[in-house]
Write a structure and sequence with these properties.
The complex is a heterodimer of chains A (660) and B (302). With 660 residues, chain A is of the alpha/beta class. Chain A is built from 20 helices and 24 strands. Chain A folds into three domains: 88 residues, no CATH class; 234 residues, 3-Layer(aba) Sandwich (Rossmann fold); 233 residues, Rossmann fold (3-Layer(aba) Sandwich), CATH 3.40.50. In chain A, helix 8 crosses helix 9 and helix 16 packs across helix 19. Chain B is mainly alpha-helical and 302 residues long. Chain B has a domain of 189 residues: Arp2/3 complex 21 kDa subunit ARPC3 (Orthogonal Bundle). Chain B is 68% helix and 1% strand. Chain B is built from eleven helices and one strand. The termini of chain B are far apart. The chains are: A alpha/beta (660), B mainly alpha (302). Chains A and B meet through helix 1, strand 3, helix 2, helix 4 and helix 5 of A and helix 3, helix 4, helix 6, helix 8 and helix 9 of B. Strand 8 of chain A pairs parallel with strand 1 of chain B.
């Protein structure tokens, strides 16, 4: 018997014993302790007044009275034990798995399974939000519950979409016309009467790889969702014109009915995982269709060997690296042999090696297996060699360009335009504000950061480079919340000994999951909260509207008249780049001597990156030492005054100066 | 149209099941109306009736809620509710679970709330080993707490801001009432079992209603109203006040309803001239495809 069931058995027994004990106590208090046998205590009787007249407390207590109470309680105690035993004997999980596939309680069973597999993610989310709270110096209940709830809702939406596109709850299934995976003519998509994209017309053939490019907000994800049907059927979008997928009209066929021939890999793969292990995740689409176990297993093994990840099959979903998670999501979408595979920004999270692997897999799928693959990406980047066509989205129009002709000329131009003159970096090293002395971090027995030492100077922007798993995030985390004393010294004060308020004035960190820091309902409220906190400090160095001003300055919106509109919006309605700027402004509200930012450019397009780069430049100009962990070389080259590299927990000796 | 009628039918069934369940909860008071010979069977019937009704309600709701989006939301919120309930049991009955139930019931409606309350109890009981004869009763009571928040009237008063504030105040008040109501109704069915016979506050089959009510009143007052229920009412009220506005906004970002519609929304573009409106419409002949079809680029594979 598993340990958890023994615990359950013990709990049940304790509850039953407790129930009997309670009955005895009630008897003694409410005048029922008397009976035959030995007189144990003789308490005086107390009669109650008012509405409770006729009720007496206490009285004599005898051994017979207690025995009566015990015997009277036995039938119900037995019932407690019996019901408790049901929970011990039955394997609830197996029962739920069976009930979730067919039968009258599919919703209940599936929802409970989802809840069950969510617990690890929930625990992780609570830990993360707690850390974010500490970084922001917050202690309120709202700062914990709201971000956790936000993440839960976000995860629920992603999970719902991922179950939908894999055929959950489908009552009808369409047969595809394999020769016409995508045919779109004069289509428009939008929300509430405002078209996001118009006059979209293109045909895609089997065995091709098409890249959908465009800036953030140009409608890439919406275009992909319109092909998968999520846009029209789940997100509340509207469609005009004709979108035909595998010969099926998208307006009448929700995603679940085309799951057998349309595979979808969402942008946030970790949020879209349904099952606890890789094998179950890969087989999910077949399992919910009621396909026999043996067949599912064969198909899953086939997919795993095709993607060369047999060794991952028994792995828990939570233990996958970013690159592995991406491959598993692709595998899960392939399990029902799709004619069309839709992949939304698969490379955003990955380092160079994983990127090459994912590009290679999608290349083989298109050009060897004959799948029609559609990928959304900011720019052509590493896709250049494998792309057959590029669908460029700009200004509400979609243009299909054969091959990689367009390249990212537009992007390069924008980058050049947005390039700002950096503040003079001459003072780098003159005014050391922070020194890191022999800092080490251990994660679960593994040394993540090994005796790292360096100094930071006021006004410089230092890029911390290195591959995934080099220890960059661990280092930043340990600098912001040092566990050992004497390792992080800022302006002569040991950060490890500082309390919340003083610590935030010394070091502030913007973590990679920066959304965790936000919990108010408007941008203005978020800024006010940060200002109030900054004001509470001993010396009033700043005017109290500092955070909102800084935020608007980062966005270049100080003089615009519509700032009230911007400040009145919900933080989650801002674009990712704007949200990051808001969090940077909040973390700067305490005027920290050192600002640390973890992977600020992940998933951002050129414009948003420029926005963030400007925010960092402003922070440095105000005298903070800024350190940015990034594997985005272009960003580092453009904004950093110097780069230090890290690998396997150590700083690499060659520290190159980047010339301005 | 079909759907609306289906929903109304479900509501009637759920309402009727809830009424019968209330009678099951109130069996010590109902028993007086039962013929004397049958009175001994009343507690047993009540103990069997409520679980049966839980199953019936689950079956009815199961059909209605079978969609990916709803199941995902139910699952995630059940996880939060159970986690909060289990964690709360460790810190002396600070029941934060009502905050989750009330806010979710408010955001997603009474049917979702009823289901969420039941699932939360089921999940947390299985995980914490708290399964017992009381589990179906708890499931119903928690389901009602969540459903009640969804049944409260929609508030439209002045600016959206002030109606949002008023809504939170209403939910705070509801949270307090629901906390005490939950305690009372859970005591009502359990009181005869908990106290047993032979004490001053025991349930006396066949005794006058007033005498039993007085006994129940004292039992409830002493054992829960003063202590657990008051703590629960305070935590719920404070929690809803602090977390409510942001949490409701977060929950409402994932609205239910539209996902289950089988037909996508199609809007004729010509009714809304976008941009400056000077554009002329192109031919909409079914196969008028402007862009050339993609073909495999020979150079890519050469």
């Amino acid at each position: 018997m598993p340990r958890s069931r023994l615990v359950t058995l013990r709990t049940t027994a304790l509850v039953a014993v407790g129930f009997v004990a309670l009955r005895v106590v009630y008897r003694m208090i409410f005048g029922g302790g008397s009976g035959d046998g030995l007189l144990l205590v003789n308490l005086p009787r107390v009669a109650l007044p008012g509405p409770f007249v006729g009720i007496q407390l206490f009285g004599p207590i005898t051994s017979g009275g207690i025995a009566n109470a015990v015997f009277g309680a036995l039938p119900f105690a037995t019932a407690i034990l019996l019901v408790g035993l049901i929970g011990v004997v039955i394997d609830v999980r197996a029962l739920l798995t069976r009930g979730s596939i067919r039968g009258p309680v599919r919703t209940v069973a599936r929802a409970l399974l989802v809840a069950w597999s969510t617990f690890p993610a929930l625990r992780e989310s609570v830990v993360r939000v707690q850390r974010a709270r500490e970084l922001r110096g917050e202690r309120s209940l709202a700062s914990l519950l709201v971000p956790v709830l936000e993440q839960t809702v976000e995860r629920a939406i992603a999970l719902g979409a991922s179950m939908e596109v894999r055929g959950f709850a489908a009552v009808r299934r369409h047969d595809p016309d394999c020769e016409r995976p995508v045919a779109i003519s004069d289509a428009a998509i939008g929300f509430d009467g405002r078209w996001l994209l118009e006059r979209v017309s293109f045909l895609l053939e089997p065995g091709t790889l098409t890249l959908v490019t465009g800036r953030t907000g140009s409608g890439k994800s919406s275009m992909l969702d319109a092909m998968s049907g999520l846009f029209q059927h789940l997100r509340g979008g509207e469609q005009d014109g004709k979108i035909s997928i595998g010969g099926v009209d998208r307006t009448t066929a929700p995603p679940r009915e085309t799951a057998a021939f349309v595979g979808v890999v969402s942008q946030w793969v970790r949020l879209s995982f349904v099952a606890p292990t890789v094998a179950e995740e890969l087989g999910f689409a077949l399992t919910i269709r009621g396909v026999a176990h043996a067949i599912v297993d064969v198909r899953v093994a086939e997919i795993a060997s095709h993607l060369r990840m047999e060794h991952l099959l028994d792995r828990e979903i939570a233990a996958l690296s970013a690159g592995e998670a991406c491959l598993v999501a692709i595998g899960a979408a392939l399990v029902s042999h799709p004619v069309l595979l839709i992949v939304d920004e698969p490379l955003a999270d990955l380092d160079t090696a994983a990127r090459a692997r994912v590009v290679g897999v999608l290349d083989r799928l298109a050009h060897d297996a004959g799948v029609c693959v559609v990928v959304a990406e900011h720019a052509l980047g590493e896709w250049g060699a494998v792309v057959d066509a590029q669908l460029h989205l700009a200004d509400g129009r979609a243009e299909l360009l054969p091959g990689s002709v367009a390249d990212s000329a537009v992007g390069r131009w924008a980058a050049a335009r947005d390039r700002r003159a950096r503040p003079a970096s001459g003072n780098g090293g003159d005014d050391p504000v922070a020194s890191i002395r022999g800092l080490s971090v251990t994660h679960a027995g593994r040394l993540a950061v090994d005796e790292v030492s360096f100094t930071l100077a006021a006004g410089e922007i230092v890029a911390l480079a290195g591959p995934n798993g080099a220890g960059k995030s661990s280092l930043l985390q340990a600098m912001a919340l040092p566990a050992t004393r004497g390792t992080v010294v800022v302006r002569g004060r040991d950060v490890g000994t500082l309390r919340r308020v003083a610590r935030r004035r010394a070091v502030a960190l913007v973590p990679e999951a920066f959304d965790d820091l936000l919990f108010a309902t408007t941008v203005a409220a978020e800024c006010r909260r940060a200002d109030r906190q900054a004001d509470r400090r001993a010396d009033h160095r700043a005017a109290s509207s500092g955070t909102a001003d800084a935020f608007l300055q980062f966005l270049g919106r100080q003089e615009c008249g519509d700032t009230q509109d911007l400040l009145g919006r919900h933080p989650r309605e801002l674009s990712a780049g704007e949200r990051l700027c808001l969090v940077i402004a909040i973390q700067l509200s305490a005027h920290p001597s050192v600002l640390l930012v973890d992977e600020p450019t992940r998933g951002l397009d050129v414009t948003a990156r420029a926005l963030v780069g400007r925010a960092l430049t402003h922070a440095a100009a105000r005298g903070a030492a800024v350190m940015v962990a990034t594997h985005d070389r272009d960003f580092a080259a453009e904004y950093a005054t110097r780069t230090i590299a890290m690998a396997a927990g150590r700083l690499l000796p060659a520290t190159s100066e980047v010339t301005a | 149209m079909m759907r609306a009628r289906g929903l109304r039918w479900t509501s009637w069934v759920l309402g009727a099941a809830s009424l019968v369940a209330v009678a099951g909860f109130a069996w010590p008071l109902v028993a007086a109306a039962v013929p004397r010979d049958a009175q001994a069977a009343v507690p047993i019937v009540a103990l069997a009736l409520v679980p049966a009704l839980v199953v019936a309600v689950a079956l009815v709701l199961d059909r209605e809620m079978y969609s990916a989006h709803t199941v995902a939301l139910l699952g995630m919120l059940t996880a939060i509710g159970s986690a909060v309930r289990i964690a709360g049991a460790g810190v002396g009955g600070v029941e934060v679970v009502f905050i989750v139930l009330i806010l979710a019931g408010r955001a997603y409606g009474p049917h979702f709330g009823l289901m969420l309350g039941m699932l939360t109890i089921a999940m947390s009981s299985v995980l914490s080993g708290g399964l017992g004869p009381w589990t179906p009763f708890q499931a119903f009571a928690c389901g009602w707490v969540a459903a009640g928040a969804g049944l409260l009237p929609r508030i439209r008063l002045g600016s959206p801001r002030s109606s949002a504030r008023l809504e939170i105040l209403m939910l705070v008040g509801y949270g307090i009432i629901a906390s005490y109501g939950f305690g009372l109704i859970m005591n009502l069915w359990f009181w005869p079992f908990a106290v047993g016979s032979g004490t001053g506050i025991s349930y006396l089959p066949g005794a006058p209603l007033t005498q039993n009510l007085a006994s129940f009143g004292l039992y409830s007052f002493v054992t829960s109203t003063l202590t657990w229920d008051t703590v629960r009412a305070a935590t719920s009220a404070i929690g809803i006040l602090l977390v409510g506005p942001a949490a409701l906004a977060a929950l409402r970002r994932a609205t239910l309803g539209r996902p289950s519609a089988d037909r996508a929304r199609v809007r004729r573009r010509s009714t809304v001239p976008p941009g400056d409106g000077t554009r002329t419409r192109r031919s909409t002949a079914p196969d008028a495809v402007a862009a050339p079809p993609t073909v495999r680029r020979p150079s890519a594979r050469a």
